[in-house]
Design a protein that fits this description.
Largest sheet: 7 strands, antiparallel
Number of domains: 1
Order of helices and strands: HHEHEEEEEEEEHHE
Distance between the termini: 18 Å
Strand content: 25-35%
Length: 192
């Protein structure tokens, strides 16, 4: 079973109330422009709220610096999301991309599927560098449109050194064009 499959299976066992509690998150950038960010995280989807329309990219970043792109996955995926409540499915995103390879990143055997490796999802401090953190959901919002191919090309050049938090700090500067408004939301996840 792949890491993503295990993570999905574990999140399915998590108590439903966890998805309805406030999501502890770290925010960077122009949050006043884009809004509150994550509103719920469950085994099947990530919910977020935007104050105004924005282009969004969703990643899962592991503590060792591995990155899995969850949205956009296909070149035809529209990153533009309306103001208000939005959700991105993370349990099974069909993708024509088979085992995407990004230089320096671990290769997933099942592209587009979130796979937990524990038995319970709990909120973690948003920027906890301890070994208890299983990974981080990272939602990057921007006024500039971006495609799956753009993200893959730019990530291929990005260093994975320094672990997950260092990689997270490099995401916006690598992906967002200079002079563009953006906000980045980071929610740590602990699976026990």
């Amino acid at each position: 079973m792949t890491g993503r499959s295990l993570l999905c299976a574990s999140l399915a066992l998590a108590e439903p109330a966890i998805a309805r509690t406030q999501v502890v998150q770290n925010v960077q950038g122009d949050v006043a422009h884009f809004g509150e960010g994550f509103t719920a995280i469950s085994e099947r989807r990530v919910d977020f709220r935007l104050l105004r329309p924005a282009n969004v990219v969703l990643f899962w970043v592991t503590p060792d610096g591995g990155i899995e792109l969850f949205f956009p996955v296909r070149s035809r995926d529209k990153t533009f999301r309306r103001a208000g409540g939005n959700a991105i499915s993370v349990s099974d995103i069909p993708s024509p991309i088979q085992a995407p390879v990004i230089q320096g990143a671990p290769v997933s055997g099942r592209a587009g599927q979130f796979a937990p490796t524990g038995s319970l999802l709990t909120g973690a401090p948003a920027r906890d560098d301890s070994s208890d953190v299983s990974g981080y959901w990272v939602l990057l919002t921007s006024d500039a449109s971006i495609t799956a191919l753009d993200v893959q090309r730019k990530l291929a050049l990005m260093s994975r050194e320094g672990g997950g938090l260092a990689v997270i700090d490099r995401l916006a500067p690598v992906l967002v064009p200079q002079g563009t408004l953006w906000a980045q939301y980071v929610a740590g996840v602990v699976l026990r």
